[in-house]
């Protein structure tokens, strides 16, 4: 027994010792971990260079820091005690962006560039961080954009009414401290102070059931007459009063109790004293009851007597005056009155004949500006609508002039000169903004050709001839590609007849891919249609320099992509079509991505690999590859690939090596399409070519029939031609049950052989070579996420790894008067439309699209891209009036010269853009700018115009109330860089290229006019605008249709005010 006790004690002691040792090891391990963490932090801190000597260098709103040795700083640096970050490539200071350094995220102020505290949304949670990237403490917190939060100790943020240190504040649902706004909570209305955010509860006034006498009401109203009939006593637009106008009354009711003479700053809403109808007066009272300004159980209507209504509005005025005293601010009253205005049909879009017909569906409809004696500043001698290529060609059916926002009058000679000035700016962007010609754009995409004056195409063409001598040779022309977004069926021939100055769109082929391949199985058109409806006849295409030069694409940022994604967003969120925020967009994109992997797709197009196999092997066109077919449309730029990426990349690299020579295309009795390219040196099937021909050429087989089954005696033949007799071919792309198999080299690829006539023959069973079956070589229908039908691509075996079937453009002088020529050299180009509408804002600086582009130029080069079409780089207006200004894709801009100065756009800063262009040039890739001469959004200053409600062609809508009406449009302004660069280069251009300023334009019969610099836009330079939701009667008038006017008396307009604002001896009742 004693021995047992001793052994137990020994075991216990041993166990305890082991546990103690284990504990000591854990402590040591923890200590080591902490020490390493501390060392890592110290190492990071030490890695931040502390700069004390050097200087900042500013270059056109881009800032650099040059150290004492003359080197540009890059990366994270501490300058004069402040953390700052400089781009790792260009050295440009990062402002208004996040950057991640060694795992720590920083935000750099958009003004100073210093690291500042910030909030970040991660996993749908908002967290606060200090300027050094460490988590912030609880309490009030000012974010990088100025928003103020209050974070609780658990990391959550305050929302709603909150009492903090005895002071009441209001935070919205997103945690933002309310300032200078009206807020409703707990059944009461509050005003949040503009400076502190401290809320004050508004005190309601009860409308007494007993109505004042008529004499008392008249006495009260007498105090509200205008101080004078001069403009100084009114807020007006070009002398006219609007529903939002305020005025200076003769007296004000201080604290709702005592009448005193008004001061110069004592303005009140016009709608506090006058209303156009009894109905609106009653609505005003009811609205103030709803908002808690006054209290009453009564529902007021137009049937109430004037005395009852006037008594009620005077009680509203008493309540408003009391609360003006309490809050010491009138800003909340402006918000309140404007909110009421938007509830009235005559002051909102309800009276603007909103339509979804044609292009009106984009923004609800159009207003065409008219010349009028009432609005002389907005008058124009031009506004020649619909002068588009199709109209010029046929002299009938004017084109659709209006598209979006403020529609620029491109028939005006002054505007035409400004468009030339802007074009010059874009194409010399690097030289002008950075003294770096290597960062200049090379060519342009012209947006919305069928909605702009065709004179612009001529002006652009003449500029390219003068600046780049593109008319001298193919070599010069092909180095400066210009492509057109021209959907009109008459456009290609018009463009060609004008000299093939730009590349027209082959909408025939684009459309037929849509009709014959991209729909759900069983709903496609026949493949035979490719041989029946075309711009380029490819049945036997052996010509050079004959076809109309063009480009082709499968999808684009706004074609077969944005509508489908918006439909997915609507399905995912249950919201209104086209109305969403970024979070809802992400929900829709997730549904869209999932749908892409389905066989029967709801939102995605079908047969993308098949369309690209045809696109990238066709003769007499430049193919354009769409970003969204290779990379997911949303998210960070190039961060995730589509299911089609591998196939498209394979086809692009295959194109470099094999695609050349003449082409044949045929469709057999099973509606199976075959397309053959013979290789360089062979334009027809009978040409024997050269040794180079032998290892080039390509064959494509395409069907859209998922139920395709060949009988035993049927075959599909690729007639590869005489140059390819008795030759081994390998698969580049084959269809299988599960999808696509890609082969990027001869190794491991299925092999077939041509016969004595150069034919590759396929049947309903796999090809057998030397007794062995070549897998997946039978022709049959499939249904999977990649192919619904059949696709196969075959190329010769034995090509050298570095084989290049492309042709360089010749320097031989052009003599036929054409700029572009459809030949092997032009065909050797590949465009990349390098963006999607739905790319997210970058999370950090290095995620900027233009930064990512610069890092991937080697990839683009390897894929054979010769021209990179960049996203429209313009800073978005962000007004959310249309898709473009909701997702900030660059097409909805106010200042078209601002390509990312200072604060970055969605794609980066001007420095990022210049660097992207330079790196593209370094590998021989052209940079294409998006020239958008049709519209300007959201100009900051209002102007009075005379309008008709029309369709996109300027035709009056007969059932609309808006005819010859005064309207307030946003037409004046253009931004800092419009002011700086607008018209700035016209003198230079007139000196260097004088013929541009003497050529007579077709639409107006005049030369462009450089005498006026458009540094600020105004209505005289526009054709009209989209409806703005201000309503048919926003500009106020009497029941007799006379507009109220406070400007100077003239033969055109006399002072005229509402009678309630005028003393009896001054003016009679309106």
From TrEMBL:
GO molecular function terms noted in the UniProt entry: dextransucrase activity; glucosyltransferase activity; hydrolase activity
One Pfam family per UniProt: Glyco_hydro_70
Location of region: Disordered: 1-46
Glycoside hydrolase family 70 catalytic domain: residues covered: 270-1066
Keyword Transferase in record: yes
Main function: Production of extracellular glucans, that are thought to play a key role in the development of the dental plaque because of their ability to adhere to smooth surfaces and mediate the aggregation of bacterial cells and food debris.
Similarity remark: Belongs to the glycosyl hydrolase 70 family.
Name of the protein this chain belongs to: dextransucrase
């Amino acid at each position: 027994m004693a021995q047992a006790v001793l052994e137990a004690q020994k075991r216990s002691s041993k166990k305890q010792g082991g546990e103690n040792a284990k504990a000591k090891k854990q402590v040591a391990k923890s200590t080591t971990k902490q020490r390493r963490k501390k060392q890592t932090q110290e190492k990071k801190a030490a890695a931040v260079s502390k700069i004390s000597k050097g200087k900042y260098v500013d270059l056109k709103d881009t800032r650099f820091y040059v150290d004492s040795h003359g080197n540009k700083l890059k990366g994270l640096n501490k300058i004069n005690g402040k953390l700052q970050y400089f781009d790792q490539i260009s050295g440009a200071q990062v402002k208004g962006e996040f950057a991640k350094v060694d795992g720590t995220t920083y935000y750099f102020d958009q003004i100073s560039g210093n690291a500042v505290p910030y909030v970040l949304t991660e996993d749908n949670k908002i967290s606060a961080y200090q300027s050094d990237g460490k988590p912030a403490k609880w309490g009030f917190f000012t974010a990088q954009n100025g928003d103020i939060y209050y974070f609780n100790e658990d990391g959550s943020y305050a929302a709603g009414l909150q009492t903090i240190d005895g002071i009441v504040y209001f935070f919205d649902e997103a945690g933002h401290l309310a300032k200078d706004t009206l807020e409703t909570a707990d059944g009461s209305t509050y005003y949040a102070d503009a400076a502190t955010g401290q809320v004050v509860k508004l005190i309601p006034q009860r409308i007494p059931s007993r109505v004042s006498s008529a004499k008392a009401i008249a006495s009260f109203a007498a105090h509200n007459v205008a101080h004078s009939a001069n403009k100084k006593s009114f807020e007006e637009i070009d002398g006219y009063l609007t529903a939002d106008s305020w005025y200076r009354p003769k007296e004000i009711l201080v604290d709702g109790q005592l009448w005193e003479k008004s001061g110069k700053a004592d303005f009140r809403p016009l709608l506090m004293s006058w209303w156009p109808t009894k109905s609106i007066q009653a609505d005003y009272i009811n609205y103030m009851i709803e908002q808690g300004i006054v209290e009453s159980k009564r529902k007021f209507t137009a049937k109430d007597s004037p005395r009852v209504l006037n008594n009620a509005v005077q009680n509203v005025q008493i309540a408003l005056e009391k609360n003006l005293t309490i809050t010491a601010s009138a800003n909340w009253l402006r918000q309140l009155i404007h909110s009421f205005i938007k509830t009235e049909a005559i002051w909102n879009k309800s009276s603007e004949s909103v339509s979804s017909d044609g292009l009106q569906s984009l923004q609800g409809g159009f207003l065409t500006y008219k010349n009028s004696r009432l609005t002389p500043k907005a008058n124009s001698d031009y506004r020649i609508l619909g002068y588009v290529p199709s109209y010029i060609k046929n002299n009938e059916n004017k084109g659709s002039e209006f598209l979006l926002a403020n529609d620029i009058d491109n028939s005006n000679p002054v505007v035409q000169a400004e468009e030339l000035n802007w074009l010059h700016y874009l194409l010399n962007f690097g030289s002008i903004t950075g003294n770096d010609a290597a960062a200049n754009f090379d060519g342009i995409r012209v947006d919305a050709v069928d909605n702009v004056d065709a004179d612009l195409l001529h002006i652009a063409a003449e500029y390219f001839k003068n600046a780049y001598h593109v008319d001298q040779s193919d070599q010069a022309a092909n180095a400066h590609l210009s492509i057109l977004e021209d959907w009109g069926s008459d456009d290609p021939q018009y463009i060609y007849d004008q000299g093939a100055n730009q590349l027209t769109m082959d909408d025939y082929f684009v459309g037929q891919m849509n009709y014959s391949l991209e729909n759900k199985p069983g709903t496609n058109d026949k493949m035979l249609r490719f041989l029946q409806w075309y711009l380029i006849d490819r049945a036997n295409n052996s010509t050079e320099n004959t076809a109309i030069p063009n480009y082709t694409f499968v999808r684009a940022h706004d074609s077969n992509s944005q509508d489908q994604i918006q439909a997915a967003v609507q399905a995912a969120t249950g919201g209104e079509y086209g109305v969403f925020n970024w979070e809802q967009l992400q929900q829709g994109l997730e549904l869209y991505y999932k749908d892409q992997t389905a066989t029967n797709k709801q939102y995605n197009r079908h047969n993308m690999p098949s369309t690209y196999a045809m696109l990238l092997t066709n003769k007499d066109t430049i193919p354009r590859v769409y970003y969204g077919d290779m990379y997911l449309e949303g998210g960070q730029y190039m961060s995730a690939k589509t299911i089609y990426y591998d196939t498209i990349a394979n086809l692009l690299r295959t194109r470099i090596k094999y695609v050349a020579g003449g082409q044949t295309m045929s469709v057999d009795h099973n509606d199976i399409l075959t397309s053959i390219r013979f290789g360089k040196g062979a334009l027809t099937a009978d040409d024997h070519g050269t040794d180079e021909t032998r290892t080039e050429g390509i064959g494509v087989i395409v069907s859209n029939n998922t139920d395709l089954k060949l009988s035993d005696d049927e075959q599909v033949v690729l007639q590869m031609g005489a140059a390819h007799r008795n030759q081994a071919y390998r698969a580049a792309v084959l269809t299988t049950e599960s999808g696509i198999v890609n082969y990027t080299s001869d190794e491991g690829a299925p092999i077939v052989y041509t016969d004595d006539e150069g034919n590759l023959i396929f049947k309903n069973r796999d090809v057998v070579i030397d007794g062995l079956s070549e897998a997946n070589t039978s022709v049959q229908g499939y249904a999977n996420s990649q192919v619904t039908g059949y696709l196969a691509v075959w190329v010769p075996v034995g090509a050298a790894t570095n084989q290049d079937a492309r042709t360089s453009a010749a320097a031989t002088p052009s003599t036929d008067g054409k700029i572009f020529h459809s030949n092997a050299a032009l065909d050797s180009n590949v465009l990349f439309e390098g963006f999607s509408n739905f790319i997210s804002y970058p999370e950090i600086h290095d995620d900027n699209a233009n930064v990512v582009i610069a890092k991937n130029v080697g990839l683009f080069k390897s894929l054979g891209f010769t021209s990179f079409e960049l996203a429209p780089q313009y800073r978005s207006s962000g007004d959310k009036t249309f898709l473009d200004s909701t997702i900030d894709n660059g097409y909805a801009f106010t200042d078209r010269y601002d390509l990312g100065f200072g604060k970055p756009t969605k794609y980066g800063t001007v420095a990022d853009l210049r660097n992207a262009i330079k790196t593209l040039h370094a590998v021989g890739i052209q940079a294409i700018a998006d020239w958008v001469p049709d519209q300007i959004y959201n100009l900051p200053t209002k102007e009075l115009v005379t309008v008709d409600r029309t369709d996109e062609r300027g035709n009056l809508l007969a059932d609309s109330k808006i005819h010859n009406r005064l309207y307030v449009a946003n037409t004046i302004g253009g931004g800092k860089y419009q002011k700086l660069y607008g018209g700035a280069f016209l003198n230079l251009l007139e000196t260097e290229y004088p013929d541009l300023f003497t050529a007579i334009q077709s639409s107006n019969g005049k030369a462009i006019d450089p005498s006026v610099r458009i540094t600020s836009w105004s209505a005289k330079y526009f054709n009209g605008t989209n409806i703005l939701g201000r309503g048919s009667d926003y500009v106020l008038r009497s029941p007799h249709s006379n507009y109220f006017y406070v400007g100077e008396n003239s033969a055109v307009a006399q002072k005229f005010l509402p009678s309630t604002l005028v003393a009896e001896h001054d003016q009679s009742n309106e």
